[in-house]
Amino acid sequence: MPRKPKSVDTFILPADGETHTIAGFQPGIDHLLFDSGTGVYDGILPPLGYLYDGETFSNSHNTASWTVHIGDFNGDGVLDTSIDWSGGQVFLPSATGLTSADLWGG
Length: 106
Ligand SMILES: [Ca+2]
Description:
106 residues, mainly beta, 5-stranded mixed β-sheet, 0% helix, 35% strand
């Protein structure tokens, strides 16, 4: 049976201080769009390459910052990615291998 084509989704994350869980996030296909509400939209250029646990970065105006956490946070035996940012938190169960290309906004 042929696999269904994967859809491309962009998940918009407002700076509302909440934790947003996105099940089924597909690194390299889907995107996270962080809306810091600060009028900066620089595409979050740094860092390059794969995001790693403990990594921190900011947008070009230093009006928003991010911290990456990678671990099995929900205890199902599969690594998850969680990103804390100045606007809240996004939790991606069973998703790892994100790169800066998966992140938009600022
Ligand atoms: Ca997990």
